């Protein structure tokens, strides 16, 4: 149909893009979401809507969103990508990947490489270009900026500040700076240039022929134009904050652009990551409302009253028997065992009128000792609660991430419990 055979070794996505044929995975997702919309338009008592709200029995991965919320997320992202809905992007336009039909044929791609420079000596060895352009991007206090700094004979000859919308990422800022550098090179009278960036991910995207980011596509197109005009352009990665004057100057300009520049943004396309984040926050709010208003998980709410804060931590922790019993109240507690006819009396040994629950042991339990006759379950909960009070607040600031902190917390708690019982018995 398009004169391409397997011997040409051209990838299927390029052929589909040339013929404007949609990928099969996108067609499948579109069909599924279309059926989902059909189900949602049905009455609330329709079996499909009832199935979406049905809570399946059995275990599911920790921190996994309910099925109906995950479907809502997929539908919202699908609509945002196609510009149907602006609930997640607001007034901004979403950044879309370039279509295969709009990029050059694979046979016309230019081979781009970048050189890594680790120190000043290597930079001085490769700084043979007539014009050197240092680029950088920065995000401070929710504000994003980028900059270009032109150097010739160890002197800055020109600089340029760029403003991006607050929802843009540092990756977009770095790419925008490189993109504007290529535009300036096309208009510059000199014929030898070097672009120096401390963003390795941006340079890897530029040298990757399969990248469809709109800024990357424009950068490659500009570099092709430079090649046709006999302009030599070299790409370099330099180490950030290594004492290089050009890099430090670009970093300063990028921060000034983010904090002080009051002009209209030079780039305001909303990245997909930001849209996903906004959609996920909405899903977590709905999930948190269900969690707070629900009549279940009363014991878990003692430790995690907010599902949003607990979600990112709990799902990365591998629970053991002790943590599961304490966090859920499902264990060898008299009140719990009495519910399943495994114990006749639900009361606690310390006070016959009070049921032995996790909440009772934490809040109302008296001082314990060898002679008090406290059960092992009571000991476990008290040790857990006291340890959590003493260690949790001091552990989070000192450990790099909350997930590592919780794992360290879990290990130390088990060690203390083992030591405690060895001393008591």
Automatic annotation (TrEMBL):
Keywords: Endonuclease, Hydrolase, Metal-binding, Nuclease. GO terms for biological process: DNA replication, removal of RNA primer. CDD domains: Rnase_HI_RT_non_LTR (cd09276). Its EC number is 3.1.26.4. Residues 127-259 form the RNase H type-1 domain. Pfam families: RNase_H. Signal peptide: none annotated. GO terms for molecular function: metal ion binding; nucleic acid binding; RNA-DNA hybrid ribonuclease activity. InterPro entries: RNase_H, RNaseH-like_sf, RNaseH_domain, RNaseH_sf. It catalyses: Endonucleolytic cleavage to 5'-phosphomonoester. It is an enzyme of class 3 (hydrolase). Belongs to the RNase H family. This is ribonuclease H. It comes from Bombyx mori (Silk moth).
